[in-house]
Amino acid sequence: MSRATEPTYERIYAVVRAIPHGRVATYGQVASLAGLPGHARQVGYALHALRTDDDVPWHRVINARGEISRRADPGPEGLQRAMLEAEGIVFDRRGRVSLRRFRWQA
DNA sequence: TTTATGGCTGTCA
DNA sequence: ATGACAGCCATAA
Fold first, then answer.
1. Does the first or last residue of chain A, that is N or C, have fewer Cβ atoms within 10 Å of its Cβ?
2. Proximity of residue A73 CB to strand B below 7 A
3. All structural domains of chain A with their residue ranges
4. Is strand B within 7 Å of residue A13 (CB)?
């Protein structure tokens, strides 16, 4: 469990797991909630290193603009949107989410 | 050990 | 509204 040096990723995963169904959070938000303010990028890395079979709803984490960030592999990019829509998240014509409505408020 | 790399974010033009 | 710039810092090699 808690080692002296707790992995940063674990904290991030814990926060992401706490995101309710049908809600989204930004990278920066997750970082802050994980006790790592300013590490938004690391959150992205943590999710990137995440495995598909883990129980972490990585698809509920989007960037501050309310969009799905473009990453190296275009595959999961579309999948993420599909998964969010399946949870009731609505994307506008430009592929953006209304953070004002769907942002998770801890 | 050092170096390079970013699923980001905020500010400015 | 969009586009460019710099800053943040853990992980991987």
1. N
2. yes
3. 8-101
4. no
A42: the nucleotide nearest its CA (via C1') is C10
Q: Kindly indicate whether the domain formed by A8-101 is annotated with CATH number 1.10.357.20.
A: no
pTM of the model: 0.90
Neighbours of A72 (CB within 10 A): 8
pLDDT tens track for A50-101: 876 678 999 999 999 999 988 877 777 788 999 999 999 999 988 899 999 9
Distances (CA, A) of A66 to A5, A11, A49, A58, A81: 32, 23, 22, 14, 11
Which positions in strand B are less than 7 Å from the protein's CB atoms? 6-10
